[in-house]
Design a protein that fits this description.
Structural class: alpha/beta
Helix content: 25-40%
Radius of gyration: 27 Å
Number of domains: 2
Distance between the termini: 94 Å
Largest sheet: 6 strands, parallel
Shape: elongated
Order of helices and strands: HEEEEEEEEEEEEEEEEH
Length: about 170
């Protein structure tokens, strides 16, 4: 009986420890800066606001506050203005990047199929990579379809070749 009571008290202690851990971990996650991901809706970070990561597909991002991680858009532009700061990298595919007066980017800035408009007082600590204008978009988007089409044509050719009847000489 004594052994059973000891086991029950250990189970209660373990359950209380797990409940305490779960409560503390949710509080820690709630206090962390939020990530924002949008599809087709613009994202705006205000002057007194801070976020960890921003991802936008088919929309644009306007930053006036602080971003502790990376900023990425596909099919949209990134506007960093009013002393906004990005601690990570900025990547824009099929969109422009505009860096206003006194903004800071601690990481790299990569633009594929867009343009960079940069104020002379804007700071980029990492590397700047700008791959052409909008002409790159069509080849980049069509390349996977071309490869897939060639692969399908190759498979059809192999199946056709293997299905030919073999003629045996008499």
């Amino acid at each position: 009986m004594k052994n059973l009571a000891l086991r029950v008290s250990r189970c209660r202690l373990l359950a209380a420890a797990i409940a305490c851990f779960l409560t503390l971990s949710t509080v820690a996650f709630a206090a962390a800066k939020a990530e924002r991901t949008q599809l087709g809706h613009d994202i705006t970070v205000g002057p007194n606001e801070g976020v960890s990561e921003l991802t936008c597909i088919g929309c644009s991002i306007r930053i006036r506050g602080q971003v502790s991680g990376d900023v990425t858009t596909v099919g949209g532009s990134i506007f960093l203005e009013d002393q906004g700061q990005v601690a990570g990298d900025i990547t824009a595919v099929a969109g422009d990047v505009r860096l206003g007066k006194e903004v800071k980017v601690a990481g790299d800035v990569t633009i594929v199929g867009g343009e960079l408009r940069r104020d002379p007082q804007a700071t980029i600590s990492g590397e700047l990579t700008n791959v052409g204008g909008r002409g790159w978009i069509i080849p980049v988007l069509l390349a996977p379809f071309l490869i897939l089409g060639l692969l399908i044509a190759f498979v059809v050719w192999i199946v056709h070749r293997l299905s030919r009847p073999t003629v045996v000489p008499a």
